[in-house]
């Protein structure tokens, strides 16, 4: 569509946990992220929606979780967001993180350079597939600003989301949506540790915060999601005016979508690409400080104004989660 600006990179990644308390401990006490918003899933207010990010939840730094207490085991496979990577300042930070993972008993692999950057793959307590990626030689979208009250020293801290890995049955279908619909450009390829060719797509300024790594795996079954799986990935749109242009574009292309969705902390649009992975386009603002001051982000249950009249009902249905410590 004429006048449509390129997507700006990753906005957030949303995953599933079966235990909000353990999830909070892992992502704040071990990974050192800040819980910038403790709220509920706006499509099902009986479950928590937790947002971990840099100091104030700048777009491109959010890793979020829906708590589904009865979520079953994830059976890894194709048509999935198969790894979420997190940016760290440099290669030396990976040595710090290896020591930290040893200290806390976190499952990790050795440092790899298959992508052309130093990376450190690891898993959380539910098998969530994660990776630290070094920004040592990175150029492109800037990272966030780590919270200075984090248990992780700022010089080693996570800066935001890195490349998002997609594993699909039919690569050409997803690649076509990335390039022909979303405006990504193919940057190149590399061979993964498992000896499969991975295609890199980038948008806007490029770099670790604006890449999608896409691999075809016809040898795998379709993923059966559960705790430790990723629900969707969101990409950055500058503002609501731009988002409405994307709504119109998808209509013109006859791609089924949610249309405009009000999320209060940002505005959204959802659709599935041909292999079934859920994509979201989300605005950079308004952000997380409209209902809480910077100093106490994430300490209380925050509800968008349109849910405030149901606060008593909502609080009665969810298990208290202490996030003030």
UniProtKB/TrEMBL annotation:
- All copies of the VOC domain together span 9-135, 160-284
Cite the PROSITE patterns for this sequence.
VOC
UniProt-recorded Gene Ontology molecular function terms: dioxygenase activity
Q: Which UniProt keywords apply?
A: Dioxygenase, Oxidoreductase
Q: Does the keyword Transmembrane helix apply?
A: no
Pfam families according to UniProt: Glyoxalase
List the CDD domains hit by this protein, alphabetically. Answer: PcpA_C_like
Q: Which PANTHER family does the annotation name? A: RING-CLEAVING DIOXYGENASE MHQA-RELATED, RING-CLEAVING DIOXYGENASE MHQE-RELATED
Can you say what this protein is called? Ring-cleaving dioxygenase
Organism expressing this protein natively: Litchfieldia luteola
């Amino acid at each position: 569509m004429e006048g449509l600006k390129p997507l700006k990179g990753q906005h957030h990644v949303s995953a599933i946990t079966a235990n909000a308390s353990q999830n909070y401990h892992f992502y704040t006490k071990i990974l050192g992220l800040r819980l910038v918003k403790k709220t509920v899933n706006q499509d099902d207010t009986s479950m928590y929606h937790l947002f971990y990010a840099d100091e104030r939840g700048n777009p491109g730094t959010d890793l979020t979780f829906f708590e589904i207490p009865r979520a079953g085991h994830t059976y890894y496979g194709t048509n999935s967001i198969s790894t979420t990577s997190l940016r760290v300042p440099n290669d030396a930070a990976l040595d710090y993180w290896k020591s930290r993972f040893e200290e806390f008993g976190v499952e990790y692999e050795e440092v790899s350079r298959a992508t052309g950057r130093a990376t450190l793959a690891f898993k959380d307590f539910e098998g969530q597939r994660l990776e630290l990626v070094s920004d040592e030689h990175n150029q492109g979208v800037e990272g966030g600003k780590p919270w200075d009250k984090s248990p992780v020293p700022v010089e080693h801290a996570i800066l935001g989301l890195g490349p998002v890995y997609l594993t699909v049955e039919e690569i050409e279908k997803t690649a076509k949506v990335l390039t022909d619909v979303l405006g990504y450009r193919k940057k190149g390829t590399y061979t993964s540790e498992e000896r499969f060719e991975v295609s890199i797509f980038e948008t806007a300024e490029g770099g670790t915060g604006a890449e999608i790594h896409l691999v075809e795996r016809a040898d795998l079954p379709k993923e059966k999601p559960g705790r430790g799986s990723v629900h969707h990935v969101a990409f950055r749109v500058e503002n609501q005016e731009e988002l409405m242009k994307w709504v119109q574009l998808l209509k013109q292309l006859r791609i089924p979508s949610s249309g405009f969705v009000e999320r209060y902390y940002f505005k959204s649009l959802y659709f599935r690409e041909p292999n079934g992975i859920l994509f979201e386009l989300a605005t950079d603002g308004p952000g997380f400080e409209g209902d809480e001051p910077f100093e106490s982000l994430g300490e209380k249950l925050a509800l968008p104004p349109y849910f405030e009249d149901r606060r008593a009902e909502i609080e009665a249905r969810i298990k208290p989660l202490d996030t003030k410590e």
